Amino acid sequence: MHGYQLIEQEVQIVLVGSFNPAIFHPVWFQSKGLMTEQEVAAAELEVCHSDVTRFVAEWFQVEVIHARFTARTKHTGRLEDLRDFVASTFKILAETPVDAIGINKKSVFRCPDTKSWHALGDTLAPKDIWHEIFPESHVGMNRLELRTGRTDGLPGMYNTGVFAITGEDGVAKDHVGFSQNAHVEIKEAIKEEKVESLYDFLMSCFDAEVEFADKVFTHVLERV
Question: Origin, by domain of life (predicted)?
């Protein structure tokens, strides 16, 4: 990828539906065999009540509000564990209304130099049209987002983003971020008998969605 260095990754599984945040306490996960006693003891529980639950475990984080369940990890060696954790949770909670699922990947790359950083923005967002109206101003890409359809027959879409990284001082770094949301209307997919269940979808499609996000990011960087 012409010297682009991967420095950070995160994968999220996000469910949209109707949830009772208060039940998602680490001790509940332990009672269902989804977390060990040691993991529960080490977990940092930030909040757990009827409106929101949020905790940080050794290798993953969970946040639940009424309309959304999110589990995420930056430990790329634990992606299958994240998949199994969420799939098993909602196999147990099979009656919980879940309308949609997103398998999300975020990656941050260090560019080989400032020239390459600008070249990426120039390739994805040509500046000529903007210089016509802002002739005296610097024009730079801050964030680009695309929405594309799925080709596997499942109801949903891909939302892909490329964005500049800035420091706390607001000054741009020679870093670029990529994000991809693989969105599926899982309730509709089950109704149409395209997948058997949320559990079935996660176990059969999670790995491929993460790999596809990596393929998209790599393709873009190779074209610069």
Answer: Bacteria
Domain count, the chain: 1
Q: What's the whole-model pTM score?
A: 0.94
CATH of the domain at 158: 3.30.530
Whether 148 is in a domain gets the answer yes
How far apart CA 54 and CA 87 sit, in angstroms, is 19
Angle CA(108)–CA(53)–CA(25) in degrees, nearest 5? 110
The DSSP output letter for 93 is T
pLDDT digits (tens, 9 = 90+) for 44-92: 999 999 999 999 999 999 999 999 999 999 999 999 999 999 999 999 9
* DSSP output for 98-156: EEEEEEEEEEEEE-SSHHHHHHHHHHHS-SHHHHHH-TTS-----EEEEEEE-SSS-SE
> Within the chain, where are the H helices?
26-31, 37-42, 79-92, 114-124, 128-133, 186-191, 198-222
Structural domain span for residue 10: 5-16+98-222
Whether residue 113 lies inside any domain: the answer is yes
Whether 167 is in a domain gets the answer yes
What distance lies between CA 12 and its chain's CA centroid?
4
Please check whether residue 71 lies inside any domain of the structure.
no
Instruction: Report which of 194, 162, 199 is spatially closest to residue 177, judged by C-alpha positions.
Output: 162
